Amino acid sequence: MRFVIVTGMSGAGKSLVTKYLEDIGFFCVDNLPPSLILKFAEISAQSEGKMEKIALVIDIRGGELLHDLFPALDEIQQSGFSYEILFLEADDDVLVKRYKESRRQHPLSQEGRLLKGIKEERKALEKIKAKANYIIDTSTLATRQLKQEINNIFLEGKTFTGIIINIVSFGFKYGIPTDCDLVFDVRFIPNPYYIAPMKLKTGKDEMVKEFVLNAPETKEFLGKLDDMLDFLIPNYIKEGKSQLDIGIGCTGGRHRSVAIADEVFRRLEEKKHRVVIEHRDIEKDSRGVGK
Fold this sequence. Notes:
alpha/beta; Rossmann fold; five-stranded parallel β-sheet; 9 strands; ATP binding; nucleotide-binding; RapZ_C
Protein backbone atom coordinates (compact mmCIF):
# COMPACT_ATOMS: atom_id res chain seq x y z
CA MET A 1 0.00 0.00 0.00
CA ARG A 2 1.30 3.45 -0.92
CA PHE A 3 0.40 6.01 1.74
CA VAL A 4 1.01 9.69 0.97
CA ILE A 5 0.51 12.75 3.18
CA VAL A 6 -0.13 15.83 1.04
CA THR A 7 0.57 19.07 2.88
CA GLY A 8 2.13 22.49 2.40
CA MET A 9 1.26 26.13 2.02
CA SER A 10 -2.34 27.22 1.52
CA GLY A 11 -2.69 28.35 -2.09
CA ALA A 12 0.27 26.27 -3.31
CA GLY A 13 -1.90 23.83 -5.27
CA LYS A 14 -3.01 21.04 -2.94
CA SER A 15 -6.49 20.88 -4.49
CA LEU A 16 -5.04 20.46 -7.97
CA VAL A 17 -2.61 17.81 -6.75
CA THR A 18 -5.47 15.91 -5.14
CA LYS A 19 -7.26 15.80 -8.50
CA TYR A 20 -4.11 14.62 -10.27
CA LEU A 21 -3.58 11.89 -7.68
CA GLU A 22 -7.18 10.75 -8.08
CA ASP A 23 -6.62 10.58 -11.85
CA ILE A 24 -3.84 8.03 -11.33
CA GLY A 25 -5.79 5.86 -8.94
CA PHE A 26 -5.27 7.33 -5.48
CA PHE A 27 -8.08 7.33 -2.94
CA CYS A 28 -7.91 10.87 -1.54
CA VAL A 29 -9.26 12.27 1.71
CA ASP A 30 -9.14 15.98 2.45
CA ASN A 31 -8.56 17.50 5.90
CA LEU A 32 -8.59 14.23 7.88
CA PRO A 33 -7.84 14.77 11.61
CA PRO A 34 -4.37 13.30 12.32
CA SER A 35 -5.76 11.22 15.19
CA LEU A 36 -7.72 9.18 12.62
CA ILE A 37 -4.75 8.40 10.35
CA LEU A 38 -3.93 5.04 11.94
CA LYS A 39 -7.55 3.91 11.89
CA PHE A 40 -7.82 4.92 8.24
CA ALA A 41 -4.59 3.06 7.40
CA GLU A 42 -5.94 -0.08 9.06
CA ILE A 43 -9.22 0.13 7.14
CA SER A 44 -7.32 0.65 3.88
CA ALA A 45 -5.11 -2.36 4.56
CA GLN A 46 -8.22 -4.51 5.04
CA SER A 47 -9.88 -3.38 1.80
CA GLU A 48 -8.63 -6.42 -0.16
CA GLY A 49 -6.74 -4.32 -2.69
CA LYS A 50 -9.47 -1.76 -3.27
CA MET A 51 -7.49 1.01 -1.56
CA GLU A 52 -3.89 0.34 -2.53
CA LYS A 53 -2.96 3.99 -3.05
CA ILE A 54 -3.99 6.51 -0.39
CA ALA A 55 -3.43 10.27 -0.22
CA LEU A 56 -4.42 12.30 2.85
CA VAL A 57 -4.47 16.09 2.63
CA ILE A 58 -3.52 17.53 6.02
CA ASP A 59 -2.69 21.19 6.47
CA ILE A 60 -3.12 24.35 8.52
CA ARG A 61 -6.91 24.18 8.28
CA GLY A 62 -6.75 21.59 11.06
CA GLY A 63 -5.65 24.30 13.47
CA GLU A 64 -4.40 22.90 16.76
CA LEU A 65 -5.04 19.37 15.45
CA LEU A 66 -2.01 19.81 13.19
CA HIS A 67 0.19 19.34 16.28
CA ASP A 68 -1.09 15.76 16.44
CA LEU A 69 0.41 14.91 13.05
CA PHE A 70 3.87 13.80 14.18
CA PRO A 71 2.60 11.52 16.98
CA ALA A 72 0.12 10.05 14.48
CA LEU A 73 2.85 9.40 11.91
CA ASP A 74 5.02 7.76 14.56
CA GLU A 75 2.06 5.60 15.49
CA ILE A 76 1.39 4.34 11.97
CA GLN A 77 5.10 3.64 11.45
CA GLN A 78 5.20 1.59 14.65
CA SER A 79 2.18 -0.31 13.36
CA GLY A 80 4.11 -1.37 10.27
CA PHE A 81 2.83 1.16 7.75
CA SER A 82 5.22 3.28 5.69
CA TYR A 83 4.35 6.74 4.42
CA GLU A 84 5.64 9.55 2.20
CA ILE A 85 5.17 13.30 2.61
CA LEU A 86 4.57 15.58 -0.36
CA PHE A 87 5.01 19.26 0.53
CA LEU A 88 3.77 22.01 -1.79
CA GLU A 89 5.58 25.33 -1.61
CA ALA A 90 5.27 28.74 -3.28
CA ASP A 91 6.80 32.19 -2.82
CA ASP A 92 5.00 34.69 -0.57
CA ASP A 93 4.26 37.14 -3.40
CA VAL A 94 2.82 34.33 -5.56
CA LEU A 95 0.55 33.17 -2.73
CA VAL A 96 -0.63 36.73 -2.11
CA LYS A 97 -1.46 37.14 -5.80
CA ARG A 98 -3.34 33.83 -5.92
CA TYR A 99 -5.42 34.70 -2.87
CA LYS A 100 -6.28 38.15 -4.21
CA GLU A 101 -7.27 36.71 -7.59
CA SER A 102 -9.44 33.99 -6.03
CA ARG A 103 -10.86 36.35 -3.36
CA ARG A 104 -10.52 33.55 -0.85
CA GLN A 105 -9.49 34.13 2.74
CA HIS A 106 -6.30 32.64 4.13
CA PRO A 107 -6.96 30.31 7.12
CA LEU A 108 -4.69 32.39 9.37
CA SER A 109 -5.61 35.88 8.19
CA GLN A 110 -9.27 36.20 9.18
CA GLU A 111 -8.49 39.11 11.48
CA GLY A 112 -5.22 40.36 10.03
CA ARG A 113 -3.15 40.98 6.93
CA LEU A 114 -2.83 38.25 4.33
CA LEU A 115 0.98 38.32 4.24
CA LYS A 116 1.14 37.99 8.03
CA GLY A 117 -1.05 34.87 7.85
CA ILE A 118 1.18 33.37 5.15
CA LYS A 119 4.30 33.94 7.23
CA GLU A 120 2.67 32.40 10.31
CA GLU A 121 1.67 29.36 8.27
CA ARG A 122 5.18 29.00 6.84
CA LYS A 123 6.61 28.97 10.34
CA ALA A 124 4.01 26.47 11.58
CA LEU A 125 4.87 24.06 8.74
CA GLU A 126 8.69 24.23 9.07
CA LYS A 127 9.02 20.86 10.82
CA ILE A 128 6.68 19.10 8.42
CA LYS A 129 8.59 20.49 5.45
CA ALA A 130 11.86 19.25 6.96
CA LYS A 131 10.47 15.68 6.98
CA ALA A 132 9.06 15.81 3.45
CA ASN A 133 10.16 13.25 0.87
CA TYR A 134 9.15 15.53 -1.98
CA ILE A 135 9.02 19.34 -2.09
CA ILE A 136 7.47 20.93 -5.16
CA ASP A 137 7.65 24.69 -5.57
CA THR A 138 4.66 25.69 -7.69
CA SER A 139 5.56 29.39 -7.95
CA THR A 140 6.31 29.25 -11.68
CA LEU A 141 4.72 25.94 -12.67
CA ALA A 142 1.84 25.83 -15.13
CA THR A 143 -0.93 23.37 -14.24
CA ARG A 144 0.25 20.89 -16.91
CA GLN A 145 3.78 21.05 -15.48
CA LEU A 146 2.50 20.38 -11.96
CA LYS A 147 0.49 17.42 -13.28
CA GLN A 148 3.61 16.05 -14.98
CA GLU A 149 5.57 16.38 -11.73
CA ILE A 150 2.93 14.32 -9.90
CA ASN A 151 2.94 11.70 -12.66
CA ASN A 152 6.74 11.58 -12.61
CA ILE A 153 6.83 10.84 -8.89
CA PHE A 154 3.76 8.71 -8.27
CA LEU A 155 3.03 7.08 -11.63
CA GLU A 156 6.28 6.75 -13.56
CA GLY A 157 8.51 6.34 -10.51
CA LYS A 158 11.15 8.76 -11.75
CA THR A 159 13.93 9.80 -9.40
CA PHE A 160 13.05 12.90 -7.41
CA THR A 161 16.18 15.03 -6.96
CA GLY A 162 14.44 17.74 -4.96
CA ILE A 163 15.00 20.55 -7.44
CA ILE A 164 13.12 21.93 -10.42
CA ILE A 165 15.21 23.86 -12.94
CA ASN A 166 13.39 26.68 -14.74
CA ILE A 167 15.05 28.06 -17.86
CA VAL A 168 13.81 31.31 -19.37
CA SER A 169 15.08 32.96 -22.53
CA PHE A 170 14.60 36.72 -22.63
CA GLY A 171 15.59 39.96 -24.32
CA PHE A 172 17.65 42.48 -22.40
CA LYS A 173 15.71 45.25 -24.15
CA TYR A 174 12.62 44.06 -22.22
CA GLY A 175 14.36 43.75 -18.87
CA ILE A 176 16.03 40.96 -16.91
CA PRO A 177 13.63 38.49 -15.19
CA THR A 178 13.65 39.47 -11.53
CA ASP A 179 13.36 35.93 -10.16
CA CYS A 180 16.45 34.42 -11.84
CA ASP A 181 19.20 32.90 -9.69
CA LEU A 182 21.65 32.78 -12.59
CA VAL A 183 21.66 35.10 -15.63
CA PHE A 184 23.79 34.52 -18.72
CA ASP A 185 24.31 37.18 -21.37
CA VAL A 186 24.78 35.58 -24.81
CA ARG A 187 24.96 38.80 -26.81
CA PHE A 188 28.64 38.03 -27.56
CA ILE A 189 27.50 35.28 -29.97
CA PRO A 190 27.10 36.22 -33.69
CA ASN A 191 23.61 37.60 -34.25
CA PRO A 192 21.36 35.92 -36.88
CA TYR A 193 19.28 39.10 -37.05
CA TYR A 194 21.85 40.64 -39.36
CA ILE A 195 21.58 37.80 -41.89
CA ALA A 196 18.58 38.45 -44.13
CA PRO A 197 17.15 34.88 -44.41
CA MET A 198 17.13 34.54 -40.61
CA LYS A 199 16.06 38.03 -39.58
CA LEU A 200 12.37 37.26 -39.17
CA LYS A 201 12.82 33.69 -37.89
CA THR A 202 13.35 32.58 -34.29
CA GLY A 203 15.82 30.41 -32.44
CA LYS A 204 13.42 27.48 -32.84
CA ASP A 205 13.89 27.44 -36.62
CA GLU A 206 16.50 24.94 -37.77
CA MET A 207 18.41 27.50 -39.83
CA VAL A 208 18.82 29.85 -36.87
CA LYS A 209 19.48 27.02 -34.42
CA GLU A 210 22.31 25.59 -36.56
CA PHE A 211 23.84 29.03 -37.08
CA VAL A 212 23.84 29.81 -33.33
CA LEU A 213 24.85 26.40 -32.00
CA ASN A 214 27.64 25.87 -34.55
CA ALA A 215 29.35 29.14 -33.70
CA PRO A 216 32.73 28.46 -31.98
CA GLU A 217 31.78 30.91 -29.23
CA THR A 218 28.57 28.99 -28.52
CA LYS A 219 30.32 25.62 -28.36
CA GLU A 220 32.87 26.92 -25.88
CA PHE A 221 30.20 28.69 -23.82
CA LEU A 222 28.00 25.59 -23.59
CA GLY A 223 30.96 23.46 -22.54
CA LYS A 224 31.82 25.84 -19.72
CA LEU A 225 28.16 26.16 -18.72
CA ASP A 226 27.84 22.36 -18.57
CA ASP A 227 30.77 22.19 -16.18
CA MET A 228 29.36 24.98 -14.01
CA LEU A 229 25.88 23.44 -13.75
CA ASP A 230 27.31 19.97 -13.10
CA PHE A 231 29.04 21.52 -10.09
CA LEU A 232 26.26 23.83 -8.91
CA ILE A 233 23.15 21.65 -9.15
CA PRO A 234 24.26 18.88 -6.74
CA ASN A 235 25.43 21.53 -4.29
CA TYR A 236 22.12 23.42 -4.54
CA ILE A 237 20.28 20.14 -3.89
CA LYS A 238 22.54 19.44 -0.92
CA GLU A 239 21.82 22.91 0.47
CA GLY A 240 18.07 22.24 0.19
CA LYS A 241 17.23 24.51 -2.72
CA SER A 242 14.01 23.31 -4.37
CA GLN A 243 14.04 25.56 -7.44
CA LEU A 244 16.76 26.97 -9.68
CA ASP A 245 15.87 29.71 -12.15
CA ILE A 246 18.29 30.27 -15.05
CA GLY A 247 17.93 33.24 -17.39
CA ILE A 248 19.58 33.30 -20.82
CA GLY A 249 19.38 36.64 -22.57
CA CYS A 250 20.22 38.21 -25.91
CA THR A 251 19.17 41.60 -27.26
CA GLY A 252 15.52 40.88 -28.10
CA GLY A 253 14.99 37.35 -26.81
CA ARG A 254 14.11 35.96 -30.23
CA HIS A 255 17.16 34.31 -31.78
CA ARG A 256 20.30 33.48 -29.79
CA SER A 257 18.82 33.15 -26.32
CA VAL A 258 16.03 30.89 -27.61
CA ALA A 259 18.37 28.50 -29.43
CA ILE A 260 20.79 28.30 -26.52
CA ALA A 261 18.05 27.94 -23.87
CA ASP A 262 16.58 25.02 -25.85
CA GLU A 263 20.01 23.37 -26.02
CA VAL A 264 20.61 23.82 -22.27
CA PHE A 265 17.15 22.36 -21.63
CA ARG A 266 17.95 19.34 -23.84
CA ARG A 267 21.27 18.69 -22.10
CA LEU A 268 19.79 18.93 -18.61
CA GLU A 269 16.91 16.61 -19.53
CA GLU A 270 19.43 14.07 -20.83
CA LYS A 271 21.01 14.14 -17.37
CA LYS A 272 17.59 13.27 -15.88
CA HIS A 273 17.01 16.66 -14.26
CA ARG A 274 13.47 18.03 -13.98
CA VAL A 275 13.47 21.03 -16.30
CA VAL A 276 10.87 23.59 -17.34
CA ILE A 277 11.47 26.10 -20.15
CA GLU A 278 9.85 29.38 -21.16
CA HIS A 279 10.69 31.72 -24.04
CA ARG A 280 9.46 34.96 -22.51
CA ASP A 281 10.04 37.39 -25.36
CA ILE A 282 10.05 35.21 -28.47
CA GLU A 283 6.82 36.73 -29.84
CA LYS A 284 7.58 40.33 -28.96
CA ASP A 285 8.49 42.77 -31.70
CA SER A 286 7.91 40.03 -34.29
CA ARG A 287 9.21 42.10 -37.15
CA GLY A 288 12.65 41.39 -35.84
CA VAL A 289 13.59 44.98 -35.05
CA GLY A 290 16.67 45.11 -32.81
CA LYS A 291 17.05 41.35 -32.43
